[in-house]
Amino acid sequence: MPRLSYRKALTRALADELARDERVFLLGEDIRVAASHVTAGLFTRFGPERVLDTPLSEQAFTSFATGAALAGMRPVVEFQIPSLLFLVFEQIVNHAHKFPLMTGGQCAAPVTYLVPGSGSRTGWAGQHSDHPYSLFAHVGIVTAVPATPTDAYGLLVSAIRHDDPVVVFAPAGALDVREDVDFAALAPVPLGRGVVRRAGDDVTVVAVGHLVHDALAVAEELAGQVSVEVFDPRTLYPFDLDGLCASVARTGRLVVVDDSNRSCGIAAEIIASIVERVPLAAPPRRVTRPDGAVLPFAPGLDRAVQPGRAALTAAIHLVTKDGT
Amino acid sequence: MTDADPVRLYRTVRLIRRFEERAIDLVRAGTIVGGIHPYLGQEGIAAGVCAALRGTDLVTGTHRGHGHVLAKGADPARMMAELCGRETGLNRGRGGSMHAADFSVGVLGANAIVGAAGAILTGAVWARRRRGEDVVGATFFGDGAVNEGMLLEAFNLAALWRVPVLFVCENNGYATTMPVDGAVAGTITGRAEAFGMPAAVVDGQDPQQVHAAAAAAVGRMRDGGGPELVEARTYRFDAHHTFEHVVRLDYRPPQEVTAGRSRDPVRIQGGRLSDAERAAVDAEVEATLDAAVAYALASPEPDPAGALDHLYASGLNARSGGA
Q: How far is B56 from chain A (nearest CA, A)?
């Protein structure tokens, strides 16, 4: 079977949707030459009318996309740097998200915001290493964080076809993941549906984005001692609570590993939603960035504030020991 | 395709004037909650610009936006119902004064974030033209917006990509209470010129002059020209917001207000009609607004069970806030 990289899966999703639907177009900075590699070959294939290289005007081109969507198009906006989402939070939240309700249903704003390389890229320091997916889930914008090439393809396709704004975070830590893939079997992945990546009996670990791979590695290491189930939500908003409840109802224990800051991060929401519905055998735990995290530059410091395998392993031991 | 018919221009400014006066009455009566930003004194700008546009052309308005919505052709009765928060309103009572929209007549909404709509309209006009529709757009904003970075970014994008958008600055002298002189370095037209956009200053109190400038710009844009800016100098006759009817803020010298009000667009345009023509329009407008207010007051309030209707165009169901 051919190998597909995460990056190429994104490229393929964009190319397929551009070819399928005339209303789809891309805009962003340096996408003509594919500085993030994700739009490679698309300018040549689809031309400057559908692959719009923009000036450094994030606020204007984000709202330009909103306007184009209100007028019937399906724009995909690429942000090279996750922290740029702070700059355009107003345009996305106050306008694209609010238009359908504020107008009493007169319009839709089907814009996809694609962030290839979210989270730490090691060495990119304070202003290029954020992972603000919890903010978008908080304001109620559909938020997907695919972990695998197949899901990167399928969730991006679903995002583009969705009638509301969707942010797709492609974590830097997952961009180099490769997978054996039957290209003919690539398909849209439904938004709001999670998946059990590894079945287990003792504890459910919810892992977001690239951390799915760390969770799988930890589960493998612990095999024989603890039977770990790994749940990949794939979409953070809407969240597949039914899927996760089914898992936790069996295991009775929950750990969430999430590359957000701790306060009001998605891990907090996941845990709150589960304890409202499922009795647990032990207090749940979360592994996250610290409160108010700013990623420091030096690689050792950068790693020190990200949730890692050692902290996840410790959390699993805590919840399996607690309550027994 | 423009319409400089003096009777039509008068009807529009008179309609906006009386609509606003009726709306202020309803604010005082407590029927319209949250208050409004009255467009009184600025009616000639919306009337003049929109008379230069076609039904399919697109506009965006501001928090002081009733005039733009009405001048572009929205139904005054449904507009009044919207201000009153009724199910029959343009936005089903979900938008109110600051978000009134009527996509069926090309109004992509009043927008309550200063300077935000320019880029939205630029994208919308670009998209319609990409799809083969021969449309142009006009985006209204105040003098306060010219210091908002996102509007200046929109100037750049529209000019760079030659999107036919008429940027209409309604310079009424104040951003809330901040006078233009205290806020604007350089000039408003100079901002447009910096992006290679033609820019003109026009007397915003004269609907016909506004119309002439807008029609000329729109004509150039329909012939393939890029965006342009018109700075319409005007004066806000009333409060920034109706809260000032309750809490007096001292920022405009009384002599200035008197002088500003002396140049009234409704009177200026009315003076171009015969007494009989004017009386006929006035009676027609009064009848329209009597019917509009009656319609609004007779309309049902929205069912609270539908408070989150249209939150998601996709039909996504949001979780409720309760236990």
A: 12
